[in-house]
Write a structure and sequence with these properties.
heterodimer, A: alpha/beta, Rossmann fold, 9 strands, B: about 260 residues, mainly alpha, 12 helices, about 0% strand, ABC transporter domain-containing protein (chain A), Bact_Polysacc_Export_ATP-bd (chain A), ABC_transpr_TagH-like (chain A), ATP-binding (chain A), ATP hydrolysis activity (chain A)
C-alpha cells in the first residue's frame, strides 16, 4: 500500500550567492541594455549555493521523522519546501493534507498587537477559521500560560514568551502534518517538556511529524525514523537511533 | 487562475485579519487615531483651495473650491495610499513570507482593504459637504458604484504589480512615490479636464484615474450621468489589467521567499 503523505523526487534546490539579497535595479537595467546592444543571450552564470542535491524520500502517514545534520546541511530548506514557502529548482514534491509549520519563532506575530490579537492573527495566517480559534482559544491560552499578559502588546514580551505564544497556536491548529524547526531552545524546561509531550501525543494520534533539531535527545524521544543530511545530500535514512549514532560518529 | 481564486477564498479570513491588523497598526499609538482618515484629505483640500483657488485663481467649473478639490482627492487618495502602503506590503512582511505559506497576494490586498475603510470614512465627509453646499442628490448618484468598482480593480492591479516588482528591485521603493506624484498631476485633480487641449484629450483619458475622477465629479457635483464609453473602456481595461498583474504576481511569488 502506497499511502505516502510526503514525497520528494529528485529534488534540487539552489540559492544564488551573488545576489543572495535582492537584485539591483541599475545592474539589471545595465545588463538588459548590454544584451540588447550586443545581441547576446545572458551568458553570465550566477554563482549558486546548492542547498539540496537530488533528495529522495517518502513519509507515510503516522510516521515521525527527525532531520539532523550540521548547520547549512539543508534541513530548513526541506521544511520550507514541504510547507510551500519556497519551490524547488527541479524535481517533484508532494505534500498532502493540512500542514502546520513552525519554522521560526516569532514569524507571523506582530509586535504592536496584544497577545490576544496575535493568537487570532497567527491562527488565521496558519489557515485557521475564526470559529476554530474561538473554540480553541482557552486551550491555547492555558497551554501558553500567558493569561496574565493577554492584553499586553507582545513587543513587551520576552523571547521565551514569544515562543510559547507561537508554539501554542501551532500546537492547537490540529494539522495532518506538523513541521517543526529548532524552536524549543528558547522556552524554559517546563515548557519544553510540555511541547515534547504535546508532540508525542500528536505522533500517537497517527499524525505525521517532521522535526528538525540539534537537540538529539528530543529527536530521539519523538521520532522513530531519522534522516541525516550533509551538504544537501541524504547520508543516512533509517531508525532514529542508528542515524543519530552515525551523526555522532562522523560529525562530532 | 481558478486555483488561485480558490486558494484565496480558502484564506479569506486571513485577508480580513490582515486588513484589521493593518488598520489597527497604522493608527496604534497615534493620538488622533482614525481621525487621520479624515484629516488627510481635509487638510489637502484646504491647502489646494487656498493655493490653487484663492492665490492662483484656477478654474473650478463654477463650483466652490473646497468641494471641487475634495471630490477628486477622495478617489485619488484612496488610490495613492493603497499604492504607497500596498507596494511595500510584501517586503514589509518579509518575516512572514520567508517562513510561512499563504497566498502572498493577501498582503497587498489587505493594504487596499484598509484603504477602503479610510475611503468610506472620507466619503461620509463628502456627503456632509454635498449637503452643506446644497448639491442635488440625483438618481445618477447610483453610478458611483460602477465607478468605485473600476477604481478598486484598477488600484488592485497597480498594487499587485508594484508590490511584486518592489521585491525584485528594491530601488522601486523610492520610484513609486515619485510616480504617484507625477500621476497626480496627470489626473484632473487641481484642474478640470476641460483645461486639457482637445487634441490631447484622447491620450489624456487613457489614464484610468482621469476617467474615474472626471466621471466621479460629473455624477456627484453636476448630477449628470457618466460618459458611458469612457466608463466601459475603463472597466474592461481595469479588469484585464487586474488579471494580467495577478498572473504576474503569482509567477513572481514563487521566488519571493528566496530573494526577499
Amino acid at each position: 500500500m502506497d499511502s505516502s503523505l510526503i514525497e520528494f523526487n529528485n529534488v534540487y534546490k539552489s540559492y544564488s550567492i551573488s545576489r543572495l539579497k535582492y537584485k539591483r535595479f541599475a545592474e539589471d537595467i545595465g545588463q538588459i541594455f548590454q544584451r540588447v546592444l550586443t545581441r547576446k543571450k545572458r551568458t553570465i552564470q550566477k554563482e549558486k549555493f546548492v542547498a539540496l542535491k537530488n533528495v529522495n524520500f517518502k513519509v507515510k502517514q503516522g510516521e515521525s521523522l527527525g532531520i539532523i545534520g550540521k548547520n547549512g546541511a539543508g534541513k530548513t530548506t526541506i521544511l520550507k519546501l514541504i510547507s510551500r514557502v519556497t519551490y524547488p529548482d527541479s524535481g517533484e514534491i508532494k505534500a498532502d493534507g493540512k500542514i502546520g509549520a513552525f519554522i521560526e519563532l516569532g514569524a507571523g506575530l506582530h509586535p504592536e498587537l496584544s497577545g490576544r490579537e496575535n493568537i487570532y492573527l497567527y491562527g488565521s495566517i496558519l489557515g485557521m477559521r475564526k470559529k476554530e480559534i474561538d473554540e480553541k482559544f482557552d486551550d491555547i491560552v492555558k497551554f501558553s500560560e500567558l493569561r496574565k499578559f493577554l492584553d499586553t502588546p507582545i513587543k513587551r514580551y520576552s523571547s521565551g514568551m514569544y515562543a510559547r505564544l507561537g508554539f501554542s497556536v501551532v500546537a492547537f491548529m490540529d494539522p495532518d502534518i506538523l513541521v517543526i524547526d529548532e524552536v524549543l531552545a528558547v522556552g524554559d524546561k517546563s515548557f519544553q517538556e510540555r511541547c515534547l509531550s504535546k508532540m508525542n501525543k500528536f505522533v500517537k494520534g497517527n499524525k505525521t511529524i517532521i522535526f528538525v533539531s540539534h537537540n538529539l535527545e528530543a529527536v530521539k524521544s519523538i521520532c522513530d525514523r531519522g534522516i541525516l543530511l550533509d551538504h544537501g545530500k541524504i547520508i543516512k535514512d533509517g531508525r532514529v537511533s542508528e542515524v543519530i549514532n552515525t551523526y555522532l560518529a562522523n560529525y562530532s | 487562475m481558478i486555483n488561485c481564486f480558490k486558494e484565496l477564498y480558502k484564506f479569506r479570513e486571513l485577508l480580513i485579519a490582515l486588513t484589521k491588523r493593518e488598520i489597527k497598526v497604522r493608527y496604534k499609538q497615534t493620538t488622533l487615531g482614525a481621525a487621520w482618515a479624515i484629516l488627510q484629505p481635509f487638510s489637502l483640500m484646504l491647502i489646494f483651495s487656498l493655493v490653487f483657488g484663492v492665490f492662483l485663481g484656477l478654474e473650478s467649473q463654477e463650483l466652490p473650491y473646497p468641494i471641487f478639490y475634495y471630490s477628486a482627492l477622495l478617489t485619488w487618495l484612496f488610490f495613492s495610499t493603497s499604492i504607497s502602503f500596498g507596494s511595500q506590503a510584501v517586503i514589509n512582511n518579509s518575516n512572514l513570507v520567508s517562513k510561512i505559506y499563504f497566498p502572498r497576494e493577501v498582503l497587498p490586498f489587505a493594504s487596499v482593504g484598509a484603504a477602503i475603510l479610510d475611503f468610506a470614512v472620507a466619503g461620509l465627509i463628502f456627503i456632509l459637504m454635498m449637503l452643506f453646499y446644497k448639491l442635488p442628490f440625483s438618481p445618477n448618484l447610483i453610478f458611483i458604484l460602477p465607478i468605485c468598482a473600476i477604481l478598486i480593480f484598477f488600484t488592485l492591479s497597480v498594487v499587485l504589480f508594484t508590490s511584486a516588482l518592489v521585491v525584485i528591485w528594491r530601488d522601486l521603493k523610492f520610484v513609486v512615490p515619485l510616480i504617484i506624484q507625477i500621476w497626480m498631476f496627470a489626473s484632473p485633480i487641481i484642474y478640470p479636464v476641460s483645461k486639457v487641449p482637445q487634441n490631447l484629450r484622447f491620450l489624456y483619458m487613457l489614464n484610468p484615474m482621469a476617467v474615474i475622477i472626471e466621471n466621479f465629479r460629473r455624477v456627484t457635483l453636476f448630477a449628470k450621468p457618466p460618459v458611458l464609453s469612457e466608463i466601459l473602456i475603463a472597466f474592461f481595461v481595469s479588469i484585464i489589467l487586474f488579471f494580467i498583474s495577478y498572473k504576474f504576481f503569482k509567477i513572481k511569488e514563487r521566488s519571493f521567499a528566496d530573494i526577499i
